[in-house]
Design brief:
Length: 274
């Protein structure tokens, strides 16, 4: 039930938060996670699921349109803590043409549910040859090539340190081998051409994909601290002679899933401890 186009986006997020609180019995969530391709297994590693709500039953959300993405909003009692995580398994991509409000709705709902931190994950193409498929990478910054913003009107938000230096340091306490890079969001749904990949590379990009940047802007506006994590699922176009396919993305995600789930759960607990 997508009412996000017609109504004020923050009011829709508040309504969503009320539905989640009523149906889950959890009045306050401490952290939220948006799980992209390859990251879905982390929910089970985090702790016990207290509630699972089909996304389309919550205002502003709809069932996912992409294979490999979940379709539920899950409240989890994080093992070893007295905290609750909100796992958002219903990402809307900009290329679905539902509008940028729908893209930003999940992170706005997370803030309305009480979260102070959001972890944004994705599967992406890698521009560095040393990053083999299955490599997790911390996002240090982004370049938004969608031509859009989730902010409306004269809304000016500072994006310095958008992807929190503090949270990246905590993630490296869990796994010191984690590298970092600049994520470039294209609109999609087509994959980038080799020329576009080279453009992104020369602009300072290390990772290319079709999500995350617009969500991060909305999350900052909502007051959330942001950790970004990419899974390199394939070399970007022109980096490898192999043609790109969504099946390749899903396969890389499946292969890396157990390790990613353990890593993300450990990082989440470390953030909650701090």
């Amino acid at each position: 039930m997508d009412t996000a186009r017609a109504d004020d986006p923050l009011e829709v997020a508040d309504r969503s938060a009320r539905v989640i609180a009523e149906r889950s019995g959890i009045a306050h969530h401490d952290i939220a996670l948006v799980l992209g391709s390859g990251w879905g297994g982390a929910a089970a590693e985090l702790g016990e699921a207290v509630s699972e709500i089909p996304a389309e039953e919550i205002p502003g959300f709809s069932a996912p349109a992409v294979a490999g993405h979940g379709g539920r909003i899950t409240s989890i009692a994080v093992t070893g803590t007295e905290r609750h995580a909100l796992v958002l398994g219903a990402r809307t991509h900009f290329y679905e043409d539902r509008g940028v409000r729908a893209v930003a709705h999940a992170v706005r709902t997370a803030a309305a549910c009480g979260a102070s931190t959001v972890v944004l994950t994705n599967g992406c193409g890698g521009l560095r040859p040393e990053w083999a498929p299955g490599t997790p990478v911390l996002i240090s910054d982004h370049i938004n090539l969608t031509g859009a913003s989730p902010l409306e009107g004269a809304t000016f938000v500072d994006l310095t340190d958008l992807y929190s230096t503090r949270l990246r340091a905590l993630a490296r306490e869990v796994d010191p081998s984690l590298d970092e890079g600049v994520y470039v969001q294209f609109r999609g749904p087509h994959y980038e051409t080799p020329a576009e990949v080279q453009m992104a590379r020369r602009m300072g990009g290390d990772l290319v994909g079709m999500s995350t940047a617009l969500e991060a802007i909305a999350a900052r506006h909502a007051g959330l601290e942001i950790l970004g994590l990419s899974l390199v699922t394939n070399p970007a176009a022109g980096i490898s002679p192999t043609p790109l396919s969504h099946e390749e993305v899903l396969e890389a995600g499946r292969d890396a899933a157990p390790r990613l789930a353990t890593l993300l759960a450990a990082i989440t607990r470390r953030i909650l401890e701090d």
